[in-house]
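User: Okay, second chain of the day. Same drill as before: sequence in, structure tokens out.
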Amino acid sequence: MTQKQLEEYLWQAANILRGIIDAADFKQYNFPLIFFKRISDVWDEEFEIAYINSGNDTTYAEFRENHWFDIPSGCHWKIIRNK
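Assistant: Same drill. Structure tokens below.
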């Protein structure tokens, strides 16, 4: 599959998922999800660094001071995605 074919395939998949929503309005649904996913990924990366630096102390790694973003308990991407 070429790059062009992949792009066309993904565009058609997005059209199917989008349904009757105008393409210009679709970003209002998509961008917040992408941002939320990225925040969760950054939190995971920071957690891993703090966990290793603290000698595998989970409590320390979860301190808000170790993270750029505060994700409330039960609101991480992985949890929301599973629901």
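The chain has a mean pLDDT of 90.

User: Thanks, on to the next one.
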